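Working notes for the structural subgroup meeting. M.R. asked for a predicted model of this chain before we commit to crystallization trials. I am recording the input and output together here so anyone reviewing the notebook later can reproduce the run.

Input as submitted:
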Amino acid sequence: MSDSSPSLPRIGDHALPNRAILAPMAGVTDRPFRQLCRQLGAGLVVGEMVTSDPSLWHTRKSRLRMDHRGEPGPRSVQIAGGDASMLAEAARLNAAQGAEIIDINMGCPAKKVCNKAAGSALLRDEALVAEILAAVVAAVDVPVTLKIRTGWCAESNNGLRIARLAEDAGIQALAVHGRHRQQRYTGHAEYDTIAAIKAAVRIPVFANGDIDSPEKAAEVLDYTGADAVMVGRGAQGNPWIFREINHYLRHGKPLPPPSDDERAGVLRDHLDALHDFYGDTMGVRIARKHVGWYLAGDVRLRDAQCRELKGHFNRLESTAEQHRFIDDLFGHARSSAPAPDEPGATAKGTRAA
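Returned structure, recorded in C-alpha cell form:
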C-alpha cells in the first residue's frame, strides 16, 4: 500500500509506503505477527526487543526474536540495554546479520528492564542517553532510530530535551509514547509533548499511545503534526487496523470491517505460522494469547461468551484441536452469537496502543 501524500516519512534511505507502523512489543511482535501486519498494511514493523548482551543470544527466546528470515525490508531490530559500548556492539552484530534499521529502546516501562537501568529508566540520565546515542550511531552504517516515553515521571517530563539530544546525535527517526514511565499503560496518553517534540526537531516523529482506531490515528496525526502513528496494543487481535488506518487517511471514511470468512482465514493462517515458527508444543501455547485477543475484539460475542471461549481454547493441547476451534467458532457464531445491537451484546473494540 502507498499513501498518496507527497511527504511520507523516510528513515535514512528507506521511504515508508504509508503512515501506519507496528510498534515493537516483547512477546507479541514475533516474525509471524510482523509478517501478518505487513500483509495487512503496516508500512514498517519493528521486531521484539533484543538484549544488548550478546552472551545471552544463545537462548531459544533470543534466537527466535532475531529471526527475520523471509521478511521484506527494511528490517528493524530493537536493542535494549544500559551500557553504551555494549549497545554499540549489539548494533554492529545485528547489522551484520541483516538488520537495516537499529532501534534503541528507551521506552519500555517493565520493572525487569528498568531495574537494569535500561528502557525508560535511561531517561533519568540525559548524559548517559547522549553517550549511548552517539556510540550506537557511530557503530553502524544503517539508520538508527529511538523509542522513548515523555519522561520518567510527571515531574520529569524531559522528552523534549531527549528528542533534541537524539537529533544532535544523528538519530534518524523518533517514536514517542505519550505516557511517562510511572504511568506504564494506565490512564490516557497525552499528545501535547509529542506535538512539542515534532515542532522542535526536523527528524521524523512517530506518535504512539492509545491509537486503537483509524479515526484516532487521524486525530493524533492532525493534533501532533507527527509523521506517522505507531500502533501497539491496538493491533493485538486486530491486525486489520493498519489497512483501516491507511484507507481512512486516504479517503476520510472508514473501511468496512473484515468479513467472517476473512477473519477465519487470517486466524487459521496465523495459527499455522505460529506452529511452524515455534513448533507444535510452544506454538500451541503462544497461540493462546493471540486467539484471546482476537476473541476480545469479536463484536459478535458477549463478554460471558468471550470468557468461556477463551477458557476453552486455553485448555486445548494440539494444533488440530486449535484449528477445529476456529472452524467451530465461525461455523457456530454466525447463527448463535448476538449481533452488536441485540440486547445483552457488548460491542468490544480492540485494545489501546
